[in-house]
Amino acid sequence: MRGAKSAKWVAGAIVVALAATACGGGKSDGGSDAKGKVDPNGIFSMDLGEPEKPLFTGDTMESNGSAVMKSVYSTLVKYKADGSLEMLNAESLTTTDSKTWTVKLKPGWTFHDGTPVTSKSYVDAWNWNANIANAMGLSSWFADIKGFDKVHPEKEGAKPASDKMDGLKIVDDTTFTIELSKPVPYFGHKLAYIPFAPLAASFYKDPKAAGQAPVGNGPYKFKSWDHKKQIEVTRFDGYKGPNKAKNGGVLFKNYTTVEAAYEDLKSGNLDIIRQIGPKDLPVYRDDLGDRAVDQSYSAIQTIAVAYYADMWKKPKPIDPKVLQGLSMAIDRATITKTVLNGTREPATGWVAKGVLGYQENAAGDVTKFDPAKAKQLIKDGGGVPNNKIFIQYNADSGHKEWVEAVCNSIQQAVGVQCTGDGKPDFQADLTARKNKQVKSLYRSGWVLDYPVNANFISDLFRTGADGNQGDFSNKELDAKIAAADSVKTLDESVKAYQAIEKDLVNYMPSIPLWYYKTNAGYSEKVSGVKFGQDGDPILYGVEVHK
Amino acid sequence: MGRYVARRLLQMIPVFFGTTLLIFLMVYSLPGDPVAGLFGDKGADPATLAKIRHELGLDQHILKQYWDYMSNIILHFDFGKQIRNGRPVTEVLGDAFPVTLQLAALAFAFELVFGVSLGIIAGLKAGRLADNIILIFTLLIISVPVFVLGFIIKMVFAFQLGWMEPNVSNDQLFSEMIAPAVVLGGLSLAYVARLTRTSMAENLRADYMRTAVAKGLPKRRIVGVHLMRNSMIPVITFLGTDIGALMGGAVVTEGIFNIKGVGGLIYESISRREGSTLVGLVTVLVIVYLFTSLLIDLLYAVLDPRIRYA
């Protein structure tokens, strides 16, 4: 999948734990110890950085903007914690061949300005978002739909041949069909993502103004945006969806640092904090008691291999055994516990937790720390060229500490010289990847776009996929991915991808490191605070106490 | 005097163009692409990247970009738009500068009042107990890093005593600004106190002081007019350049106290390669520096009539 909400890494990575001390355990059961009666009109506050861009459904990729958009818009479907789908604005979503999908909308839904939500609201919005003329960052999400290449030609500077995708047909006010260019069994899951939200008719009159004050169809109405200070949304009383807000609204407050936000949480000026800063991680469980949140979310950190680099290519392609050996030389358990302060969980495969098709131990022994076996594997594979590797990372978001720890672990276990290759910031890191200047390995990561295992495999390891920046390419694997994509049902596809994941160990497209966790907290004023798979709190369920 | 001012103002033109061009080139030469940075790990198709780049004019030659930028500023007072969110830079600066101005003014008043008074006390009692206490106090302030000082103040006054909120809220109340202003002005306060002290201690032995005393003038007048007027020249010089430093250099303090001012904006603009925002910021800061230094130079003549301008 092209452009996705990956800037979350920028935001999320800034708060990656650095402190080198271990921390005490603590349980979080999301229980309520708030006092006083629930106030259904109570407004609570949450820390949120300034959204990077105007609030367009087709251009909101990072977590700050996403949090606001998710409250203002409701898409056709959403997914539950186990990865299965739940209807939201859609009455039903049906397909017989995974190629043509029929959407029936729930009747009576309106936008916040009172206009009805119809099939046209969806079809027009998708066509607008996909159009290259509007340069929306998430436009490639529509690439599955027939006729996408007409509205979004791949070539630089090309003009769109049409402003409508052939695959979208309006049947009546509450029914429309989507025809894809080829079957995509998990297409329904993609529809939960924000670029697929409907847009009100007023949007097209002045998109620029709408980007500053979106009119949605979701549980919350957009109220105001005081740039770099706060954004306010209030409950939409005419909302007909199942996820009706149990509170009066949300005040998204901007903070200069996570530490400042945490101080405000402690002194009662803030109700929910999404991420605890490195400084406070060792103490936050003691500070907050059972209001401390510690749960996994669907994201994974890996070390990706720059397959184009000379050291892996010349004189002959590297044997995957060498990479298996390097993987087994990393002591994940100790590093996550000490260097990362318990904010990560050792990975045992390439698909993150909470995703449909997640399987434990998919990578087998490869993620276990075993210096003896690691040495043997590297020897069997012909050794590391020059016995020297580099791990590239961006030094602006706290990756240095764990990269060094990983390097130390490799060096001690198998005697391969390992050096961190720090780039000053994320932009410089990306440029080096884009220009194929990565010396041997680089830090990489992935947050779910949709909770199906295909997202962690096809979008990362398929030849030419945008997430595949290390130029990994394998014909056998491509064929298997194509086969898994062309089956008729979601179940079959998930199973096929599970088999592929088990098989990845023979190719080693990347070295899985650990799964991310949400380390957050909330104040005594609120209860019912739960965090979703994407690491964001679920706003509508929060109850505010008097 | 008039000619001097005119010449100084004319000198500002090359300085203005020189600094802005330098900043422009520096931002441009940093590795990393601001547009690709929008997409992160997951990348984007070249068509979309090219389209965004074209819309922002980033596909032009750097000198052409600079030319367009400068002519827009001069002809239309248009500082361009931010790459990420398309907000006009004038609006972004308009949000950040008043806050920082308020903070800087407060810090400046703090360092002026307390710095100069401490300096006077120390200067008049040079070598005595009060002087030594002030020397030790200023040494302490100079040697404590800003973030430590900020942390200690928060720790004591916000969490232990509960006299203040730990952070500045979005309303930026005057009362909330006092603590950050103390932290921000603290370092300069120490320098002001020391400069005042030394300068006064020196001038106390000057001939005109002896004459003033011999004339039998009241002590108030000797110190207030004869001594102070001459001793203030180095202090005023320092204070003048410090206004600019206070406005631009508050990155740490603003971060600690959650103030959305110029400091954070500079940091953000560099890390996001927001060239237009950065150049706009620097342009305003350069103007602030130029005007304060002009003002200082003119003040010299008022303080010491021996200094004349042609």
UniProtKB/TrEMBL annotation, chain A:
Residues 90-466 form the Solute-binding protein family domain. GO terms for molecular function: peptide transmembrane transporter activity. It comes from the Bacteria. Pfam families: SBP_bac_5. Residues 1-22 form the signal peptide. The keyword Signal applies. Keywords: Signal. CDD domains: PBP2_NikA_DppA_OppA_like. This is Dipeptide-binding ABC transporter, periplasmic substrate-binding component.
From TrEMBL, chain B:
The chain crosses the membrane at residues 12-30, 99-121, 133-157, 177-195, 235-257, 277-303. This is Dipeptide transport system permease protein dppB. Keywords: Cell membrane, Membrane, Transmembrane, Transmembrane helix, Transport. It holds the Pfam family BPD_transp_1_N. Belongs to the binding-protein-dependent transport system permease family. Residues 97-300 form the ABC transmembrane type-1 domain. One of its GO terms (cellular component) is plasma membrane. It is a multi-pass membrane protein. It is found in: Cell membrane. GO terms for biological process: transmembrane transport.
